[in-house]
Amino acid sequence: MERFKGKVAVVTGAGAGIGKACALAIAREGGRVVVADIDGPAAIACTAQIAAEAGQALAVAMDIADAQAVAELFQTAKRRFGGVDVLVNNASAMYLTPHDRAILDLDVAVWDKTMATNLRGTLLCCRQAIPEMITRGGGAIVNMSSCQGLSGDTALTSYAASKAAMNMLSASLATQYGHAKIRCNAVAPGLIMTERLFAKLDECMQRHLHRHQLLPHVGRPEDVAALVAFLLSDEAAFITGQVLCIDGGMLSHVPTYADGGNSAALPAGDAAQAAATSHW
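The chain above was modelled as a monomer; its predicted structure follows.
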């Protein structure tokens, strides 16, 4: 398929993980991609992979918390490729999550920095993209939310709040600019095993989280990229203002599901053993 032939995409946080998978998916279907990331070498490596597959891409090292850098990013996209048709707001301040604690233990500076990148940075990118999309007759935006923004947790207070706010930002954008033929949706991944997350989660925590999924396999960045590419494409022309979970069913079951061994499809005698030996 060439769903993005003739279109220009800006993908933030595209140096690794989900963002990189999104950039590759768009490029593989004919899109020209501006690969933006605070990690310049990672952005360059992503564009090199796109070029090796005969795609077109440009790497930009920048911080979406910096309004001037965001403006320059979209100026670069216009100067090099003529504008922007689709935008993936994937960048977030993941380096802060180890310090993102419960409310009474949370350093307010962590809250402020998280909001400056995750929420304000997304807003800044949207504000730059919308006028360009209007001049080109419309466009599509996907904001990378999280299941953390849809349920409470014992930590990640700032991250969760920023993602919940991003869901409403997406709905507001869809409402305000739908008549200008601009669509906006949010995607809320659950446990997606990026290289960064795999290095951070020990085996015990991996098993614990996996027990709460309905599907027996782990989510991959490519799974999220496939959903994002669909939402950005004309196939999703009548979908806007939505928050779509891609979490293996983690948020769709009763709280006691994991305690039952996740084994309704197994013979009754195998339930306890399945729960005790659950693994990746």
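The two ends are 32 Å apart (CA to CA).
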